Amino acid sequence: MLVFAHRGASGYEPENTLVAMDKALDLGAKAIELDVHCVEGELVVFHDRRLEGKSTGTGLIHLTTKAELAQFTVSGQAIPTLWQVLERVSVKSNGLCSVNIELKGVGCVQPFIALYPQLLKQLKYAPEQLLISSFNHPYLAAIKHAFPHAIIAPLLGGIPLDLAKIMTTLNAYSINLDLSFVSQAIVDDAHQRGGKVFVYTVDNPNDIQALKAMGVDGVFSNYPDKAIAATMMPITMDYTGWFE
Questions:
Q1: Distance between CA 235 and CA 244 in Å, rounded?
Q2: Considering only CA atoms, which of 241, 207, 220 is closest in space to residue 29?
Q3: H/E segment holding residue 83
């Protein structure tokens, strides 16, 4: 199972900051997840649509300015740009770490489409190292139209009536599924469609073992070192009915 360090090693360091990314790599993470908003045309790494919940700023992040954003911090850490994070991860991992970029904010997709070729050419990421996810499925359709070789992942916060059909519709690499809505049926349907299933956010070792027993391909965890250890443990109990 692949373990994504959720917002970096956010169980140990302030989420979505450079120190959280550094910590994730220090703990052995081979994949990192982060969240992206757009501020004055530039992509920045931050989770919430509002600043006051997680930073010293206030208001809607997409309505702030870059100059204002530079004054705000997350537990004393600067809010980085997407470029800063991806450059840092590439250098620190010697180009070996994959990154799940979740497009969250208003107006994210066109700046990302403009930036994407530079991530491949200048930062030397391979297309398969950048998994682009979003709850905004039209964003993903636009990216796939612009770059058919890009790999995308629709985020799901529930179980659709047609299970993993969106994967086929978008020609997606995976579905990224909320832990609260995992079912064997949707896992099996995704696999039958040739895709993978990644589940967020999973910190409990027994949950990781149960997902492993279901055939889930990977998890997002705030504690990547503990999650990696849990994925490597043999399954020693019956997890039937754990999720359904």
A1: 19
A2: 220
A3: helix 82-92
